[in-house]
Amino acid sequence: MTTVPAPRRLLDVKRCQWVAAGLLGAVVGFLGAVSGAEPHGPQKPTAPAETAKPAPELSRYEAREFHMGQPIILVLYAADDEAAQAASRVVFDRFAELDRTFSDYKEESELSRLCRDYRVGEPVSISSDLFQVLKESQRVSEATDGLFDVTLAPVIRLWRQARRTRKLPDAEILRQALARVGSEKMRLDERNSTVTFSEPGMQLDLGGIGVGWTLDDVGRRLKDRGIHQFLIDASGDILCGDPPPGRSGWRVAVQPLLEDGSQPVLLSLRNRSVTTSGDAYRFVEIDGKRYSHIVDPETGMGLTGRASVTLVASKAVDADAFSKGVSVLGVERGLKFVESMPGFECSFVVVVDGMPRRVVSRGFPELEEHATATPVSQ
Q1: What is the Cα–Cα distance from 100 to 108, expressed in whole angstroms?
Q2: In a domain? residue 193
Q3: How much is the pLDDT for 258?
Q4: Is the distance from CB of 75 to CB of 243 less than 8 angstroms?
Q5: pLDDT per residue over 303-343, tens digit each?
Q6: Mean per-residue pLDDT for 12-33?
Q7: Which of 2, 192, 252, 378 has minimal CB crowding within 10 Å?
Q8: What domain range is 137 assigned to?
Q9: Measuring CA to CA, which residue among 271, 266, 243 is closest to residue 256?
Q10: Confidence label for 44 from pLDDT (cuts 50, 70 and 90)
Q11: What is the structure's pLDDT at 312?
Q12: 52: exposed, middle or buried (Cβ count in 10 Å: 0-12, 13-18, 19+)
């Protein structure tokens, strides 16, 4: 799908690749103001028009760098090249910093050192960033009754190996890994910024929450610099700020689950985040059966039903983490859960007899550029 063209400027920023369109996780463009609605923008000044300072003209800038194992695409509106360049460095430098904190692939990341060096029952001091992510992970785990759990890392590592070898994890080894799983085995002390593990051999995987938390963090930093109109796409985890000047929202295209000629679903989003979780790209087939990269913490097995979940929330950390738990819940329980959460909306696409079937939460059609689905719950 093509996007509505818009003026933009290119900057010569160290390590930045400036791009024109074609966002990887979603196609992003602009939507005109909804009929009968006022374009989004600053409030009308109360001072006489002749004394009010005109708002600076904003230009569109785009940039891309590679962090956390994926391309990070930034689109923003700024008054000049200097402001845009400074804002882009805030975003990309912070992604690089938090990758050195959250990664379980980097041997010397803070997370890797924590999991390697801790002693059972002894508190370990950790950075504020890592503490806050672990605190958020426990909140999501509690809300989903453990269906999202960052302590699932020992099981996830077995499935990473299974994708390489195309062999199912050994049942006994899987059982032993599951015995080390459980957020209740990880105790946080906010006053002292420490974490204590109650079992040996525990591991943490922040792959389902770290990117979302980082998006929220850099979004706040952009706003602190006066950059309010932006979109950040972390390979499908997307955070939208205020819409472009004179527009009602950012256009985000949710790609179809199957390559069957279906058109993307177009969403119009402002000050919201969206994530799609599913097995469209990350899966393994073993003995003729397809297993998703999303693992059920109760069984330790990868999900086997062809499905994707698109979750919209106010915070990127919620869209990122809760989309995994909702995937494990399935359509009926997942929709019920989403509709109990303020500010959440979702769309399920499931494959039944080889055909995609789409069901959505009550408020999801209001986010669509063209409503194409009827809510299941009336």
Answers
A1: 8
A2: yes
A3: 61
A4: no
A5: 887 888 999 999 999 999 999 999 999 999 999 999 999 99
A6: 35
A7: 378
A8: 110-197
A9: 266
A10: very low
A11: 98
A12: exposed
176 assigned to some structural domain: yes
Residue 117 lies in a domain: yes
Q: What is the mean pLDDT of the chain?
A: 84
Q: For the chain, how many structural domains are there in total?
A: 1
Q: Specify the pLDDT at position 142.
A: 96
145 inside domain: yes
The 10s digit of each residue's pLDDT in 116-125 is 999 999 999 9
